[in-house]
Amino acid sequence: MILGQRRRKVIGLIARSGGAAIAVTLAGAFVNWVGVAGTGAVAVAISRADTGVLAGVLAGISAVVGCEGLVRLFQGGIGRGLVLGIGSFVGLGFAAIIFFEVVKGIEASGQTSR
C-alpha cells in the first residue's frame, strides 16, 4: 500500500470516528441517555462494528458523562461529580487507545519487508 492510500485510510478513519463522536455527543445534549445509547448502537451497527466508529462512540459517551460530572460538581454533588469525571477520563483513555491501535494497524499494513 502506498503512502497516499494509507493517508486516505487514516483520514477516513478520523472522519468516521469524529462523526460518531459528534453524533453521540449531540444526542446526549439534545435527548437523554436513551438517545446516547441508541445513537451509539445505530452507529456501530451501520458501520458493521468498525473499530474506529466504536472508538468514536466511546469518546462521545465519555464526553456526555464528563459534562454530566461537571454539572454535578457545579450543583454541589462533589462525590458523584468526581466519579463521573474519573469515569469520563477512563473512557476517553480507552477510546484513544483503540483509535491509535487502529491507526497503527493501518500504518503497519503498508510496510513491505526487504
SSE diagram, text form:
Layout: H1 3-30, H2 33-46, H3 51-75, H4 78-109
Helix pairs in contact: 1-2, 1-3, 1-4, 2-3, 3-4
Report on the architecture of this protein.
The protein is built from 4 helices and no strands. The protein has 114 residues and is mainly alpha-helical. It has one domain. The protein is elongated, with a radius of gyration of 17 Å. It starts with a helix and ends in a 5-residue tail after the last helix. The model has no long low-confidence stretch (mean pLDDT 81). Keywords: Membrane, Transmembrane, Transmembrane helix.
List the defining traits of the structure above.
single chain, 114 residues, mainly alpha, elongated
Return the domain count. 1
Largest sheet: none
Tell me the strand percentage band.
Answer: under 5%
* Low-pLDDT segments: none
Q: Distance N terminus to C terminus?
A: 15 Å
Tell me the structural class.
mainly alpha
H/E series: HHHH
Number of strands: 0
Q: Which term fits the overall shape? A: elongated
Please state the CA-atom Rg, rounded to the nearest Å: 17 Å
User: In which range does the helix fraction lie?
Assistant: over 70%
Number of helices: 4
Question: Overall pLDDT, averaged?
Answer: 81
Transmembrane segments: 21-46, 52-74, 81-100
Keywords: Membrane, Transmembrane, Transmembrane helix
